[in-house]
Amino acid sequence: MAEHSENPIESMMEKISEKIHDHDSSSSSDSESEKPASPSSVKAKIYRLFGRERPVHKVLGGGAPADVFLWRNKKISASILGGATAIWILFELIEYHLLTLVCHSLIFSLAALFLWSNAHTFIKKTPPRIPEVHLPEEPFLQVASSLRVEFNWAFATLRDIVSGKDLKKFLIVIAALWVLSVVGSWCNFLTLFYISFVLLHTVPVLYEKYEDKIDPFAEKAMNEIKKQYAVFDVKVLSKIPKVPLKSKTT
């Protein structure tokens, strides 16, 4: 009977001690988690080009276009780049014209289908199955909607630039347009488009492969550009008088 009377008291004391032990262990773990990590465990923030925090694949939009630019499928990327090269050679080097190419292609296709449709009885072959083509409305609406968003963003950006609020952005846009005008005087639009297309298929994949070596050089270059801009700001931009914008009163 004595043993039976002591068992509930002992079990109660064991439960109280377990709760105290659990509380002490949780408080010690919380205090350890609140302690600052050692300097060796904290990794320094790595500089990435243009301040990106996402992988190159995500920066390019992800999906199939990013796979093509980064050569995830080498056959598709090579075929697209080869097709663009063939088009550039055809129109730029051979000096073939787009309208002439379209007309010649249509003439050949229509003539071949017409002759096949009328001569199948003589050559004892089945006539060609010409499918009915119906363009769906939804993809065109999606493209138009996305273009509308991009155009609105471009117009809003241009309005923000010409309003005189950000002189740095204004100078960057003027410099970029001037560089494009110089490059445009060297070559025509087709060559410029082809060069941009080739760069899109080479620069991202090379950067993704050697980004750990490129980013330190880019960091040094950006720091030097910031220093030169600070000097230019002190000597030139700060001396330009700024006219305050008048707020419209209703």
From TrEMBL:
Residues 1-40 are annotated as: Disordered. Pfam families: Reticulon. Residues 65-250 form the Reticulon domain. The chain crosses the membrane at residues 76-91, 97-116, 170-197. It is found in: Endoplasmic reticulum membrane. It is a multi-pass membrane protein. The keyword Endoplasmic reticulum applies. InterPro entries: Reticulon, Reticulon-like. Residues 1-25 have a biased composition (Basic and acidic residues). GO terms for cellular component: endoplasmic reticulum membrane. GO terms for biological process: response to bacterium. Residues 26-40 have a biased composition (Low complexity). Keywords: Endoplasmic reticulum, Membrane, Transmembrane, Transmembrane helix. This is Reticulon-like protein.
